[in-house]
Write a structure and sequence with these properties.
Length: about 200
């Protein structure tokens, strides 16, 4: 009974945080709401006795990925006024996309029935010698090895794209010209001046 109450509490906070991610006007606030969502998701993972997933979600996503996102968002120097001006112009496209995604998720759930999971059964405790880390690794590196590698490639591409966005040309930005620094010669930069010695009286 207590587990179900905690589940509904964390699920409600998770939905509220997800709404905050897409409705916040400041992108930094959106990232912070996303961190809040990850923390609540980790709490739900703990309720279903998936401790490894909960720890990975907090350490990897909140501790590393979200910090990276936060720095990227702060370094992009986004013109918020320009984004707000174009928001209403493309709002209809966003609503159509959102409705399409909702329809697809509903269709998958309606057809597959939550993947055969009996939601009325509740949480079942696993034996003491059960290792969810072992089961996760066995499934991940056998049945889902190719999707796992594909996700890794997509993350690398995303990191490269984020770095490329921060290196764009901006007015007043001072950059190094490595080729000019390497091609410099000592005689072009160094001048020997001969100063005559003065005699002390």
């Amino acid at each position: 009974m207590l587990v179900e109450i905690l589940f509904y509490i964390f699920a409600t906070l998770l939905v509220a945080g997800a709404l905050g991610v897409i409705t916040a006007r400041n992108p930094v606030y959106s990232v912070l709401f996303l961190v809040f969502c990850f923390v609540n998701s980790a709490a739900i993972w703990l309720l279903v006795e998936a401790e490894f997933l909960a720890i990975v979600l907090v350490l990897v996503y909140v501790g590393a990925v979200m910090v990276l996102f936060l720095f990227v968002v702060m370094m992009l120097d986004i013109n918020l006024a320009e984004i707000r001006q174009g928001f209403t112009r493309f709002a209809w496209l966003g609503w159509i996309t959102a409705l399409a995604v909702i329809a697809e998720i509903t269709g998958v759930i309606w057809r597959n029935g939550l993947g055969g999971v009996d939601v009325g059964r509740g949480f079942v405790s696993e034996p003491a010698n059960y290792s969810n880390t072992l089961e996760l690794g066995r499934v991940l590196y056998t049945h889902y090895a190719y999707p796992f590698e594909l996700a890794a490639v997509l993350l690398v591409v995303a990191i490269v794209a984020a770095i490329a966005l921060t290196l764009r040309r901006r007015p007043g930005l001072k950059v190094q010209d490595i080729s000019r620094q390497v091609a410099v010669r000592a005689e072009d930069r160094l001048r020997v001046v001969k100063v005559s010695a003065e005699k002390r009286s």
